[in-house]
């Protein structure tokens, strides 16, 4: 299970994420596109090294190295730029990325360990996104990259992923808008593990 942070500051976010990281088997995607780099440093310093080892920075590869966080996440544009550099072959970098079709996902190079595919269902956090065009639940031929479902995932919609090609899922809107975020995350994780186990 993966949790994506809110893009904007939120006073309760750090406490919730620390509880999450110490309670569940989860990866946290730190996506703060407008946060100044010094503020992002202060943000990271509020987590222990063990907690940061379960976090992925979006965009800031140099900062990830500074805080010994080998997991990074690339947008589609960053993926194109990075593939032209030595970073592609770095043994220390564990990269994930974002895709918006099975064709994009299936064309990823083997250096990407995981990739979001979205939107699966209409987005909860981005009004209108995914309402008219959603990714089919089947279509995977790339077996070296973990397929992570994103978009509209919640405890209500996650049962619809049963029998799909997805190996994992990510929460954003359903998690942050829940009255009890950790309860929602745990419920989603339990449901997903149940039908993955049945399929296995």
From TrEMBL:
It comes from the Bacteria. InterPro entries: Aldolase_TIM, ThiamineP_synth_sf. This is Thiamine phosphate synthase.
